[in-house]
Design a protein that fits this description.
Elements (H helix, E strand, L loop, with lengths): L2 E11 L7 H21 L8 E4 L3 E5 L6 H20 L10 E11 L8 H10 L2 H9 L5 E6 H8 L12 E7 L2 E8 L39 E4 L12 E3 L7 E9 L2 E9 L7
Parallel strand pairs: 4-5, 8-9
Antiparallel strand pairs: 1-3, 1-4, 2-3, 5-7, 6-7, 8-10, 10-11
Length: 277
């Protein structure tokens, strides 16, 4: 039995199954090329990695002496750059976009792969709903990375890389019987802008029914808001329509712009004459 502790790195392509045979073949070639070029750019010898090829997925155990920081930092950054270059002129349906999971743990060679809880953990991080949702909600990002909690804490949070801990987001991972969490990062996006609080079983990116949807979406710089107010009444909510507790207003004022610092009022009308005041 060969036992060691090392980095486990696995990746999987998005929308591979919906591609036809010719595109699948091309995506496989691009996948291997991108991983190899990223490894070379990061100064890593990928020929020494023990890799399991699965078509649109690669599952790899790295040599024990491989510097963790070089993989999590330099290799990931190089891969993100390589994917961006590969996809620059490709149509959306043919882009090479992937999820990646990285964990440091125990590996033991088995009769058909690597058995053990650490091998299960990295696979669950890779196939987690948050990782899928990240690519769905970030069409301009080609790579999403999920680190295990132990790897993030000992490497990124401890400042042993150039990565900023605040660029990561803690995500809950529930796949089959596995329950845990990881730390997700979008090298070319904002992981904190993602909607990940969907109810169990909901589609990735779906909003929870318990959470109200903001009525302002992609609003322009000037927002016409209508509020009913009288005297010294104070508007307590500003959205598309804002109301105050006093509904007996004799003046209706139309808001041209409104933000947290104050309001700029447009023309006002009186109820009794329906004329400009």
């Amino acid at each position: 039995m060969s036992f060691q502790r090392s980095l486990l790195v696995c990746c999987d392509l998005r929308s591979y199954g919906s591609a036809d045979d010719l595109l699948q073949r091309e995506l496989q070639e691009l996948l291997v090329r991108s991983l190899d070029r990223a490894g070379e750019a990061a100064g890593l010898d990928r020929s020494a990695w023990r890799r399991q090829a699965k078509g649109d997925e690669e599952w790899a155990v790295l040599p024990a002496e491989t510097p963790e920081g070089d993989v999590v930092d330099r290799y990931v950054r190089a891969l993100d750059a390589e994917l961006a270059a590969t996809n620059r002129y490709r149509v959306p349906e043919a882009k090479l976009r992937m999820r990646m999971a990285i964990h440091f743990g125990t590996t033991v060679e088995g009769a058909n792969g690597y058995p053990g809880q650490d091998a299960v953990l990295v696979s669950r991080l890779l196939n987690s709903e948050p990782a899928h949702a990240a690519l769905e909600q970030s069409p301009n990002s080609d790579l999403v990375v999920v680190l295990s909690d132990s790897l993030f804490t000992s490497l990124v949070a401890a400042r042993y890389t150039t990565l900023r801990p605040e660029d990561f987001r803690r995500v809950d991972v529930q796949v089959k019987t596995f329950r845990g969490h990881g730390w997700m990062w979008l090298p070319s996006g904002d992981v904190h802008s993602l909607v990940l609080d969907a109810a169990p079983g909901a589609e990735p990116g779906a909003e929870s029914a318990a959470d109200p949807v903001s009525p302002v979406v992609d609003s322009p710089s000037t927002v016409n808001q209508h509020a009913v107010a009288s005297g010294s009444s104070t508007v307590i909510q500003a959205a598309r329509d804002a109301y105050v507790t006093n509904q007996k207003a004799d003046v209706i004022q139309h808001f041209d712009r409104n933000d947290q610092r104050g309001s700029h009022f447009g023309p006002s009308y009186r109820r009794d004459t329906d004329e400009r005041a």
